[in-house]
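Example 9 (inverse folding). The structure is encoded as follows.
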């Protein structure tokens, strides 16, 4: 059953990645006429890592034998929220003359609000995998979630450009450390 459902998850998350990669590509192509904002680029990298980690984490659901509609709808909603998150970093009609800093701050509340929603959805998704004995909840998760929420809440309410630079880098360090330490924990355990 999961292979069937996994296709839809893959399409939704694949579209999120596609939008981010097309945005980066267009930024390079239109580099002479686009005002690049380095903080936005950092958040693009962060969301790419987040989507890839989520996609990888969804694989654990393949062990679930029975799929109630509630779990299916929950996983789909989570995937859709992550797609919406990715779609906010670049406009769909990306054209020459885009001021990426202005665009980022015009969408800041939506971006951080949706990222908070995705993070809050990640908590029951991760715990449900643990309760269903699909995967143990990593010990590092207990630190990752509150730090991530603090960064995202600060981003939601702050309009300070320096603060946003620090937040983007802090979240990048957080996600890389989390992925590295959870991977290392698996290697040590096996």
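The amino acid assigned to each position is listed next.
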């Amino acid at each position: 059953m999961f292979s069937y459902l996994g296709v839809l998850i893959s399409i939704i998350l694949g579209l999120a990645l596609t939008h981010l990669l097309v945005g980066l590509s267009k930024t390079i192509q239109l580099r002479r006429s686009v005002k690049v904002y380095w903080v936005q680029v950092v958040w693009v990298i962060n969301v790419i890592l987040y989507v890839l980690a989520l996609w990888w984490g969804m694989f654990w659901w393949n062990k679930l034998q029975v799929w109630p509609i509630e779990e299916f709808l929950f996983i789909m909603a989570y995937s859709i929220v992550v797609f919406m998150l990715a779609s906010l970093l670049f406009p769909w009609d990306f054209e020459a003359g885009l001021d990426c800093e202005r665009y980022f701050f015009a969408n800041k509340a939506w971006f951080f609000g949706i990222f908070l929603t995705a993070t809050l959805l990640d908590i029951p998704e991760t715990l449900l995998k643990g309760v269903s004995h699909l995967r143990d909840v990593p010990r590092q998760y207990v630190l990752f979630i509150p730090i991530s929420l603090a960064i995202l809440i600060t981003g939601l309410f702050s309009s300070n450009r320096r603060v946003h630079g620090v937040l983007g880098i802090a979240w990048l360090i957080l996600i890389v450390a989390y992925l590295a330490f959870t991977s290392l924990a698996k290697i040590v355990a096996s």
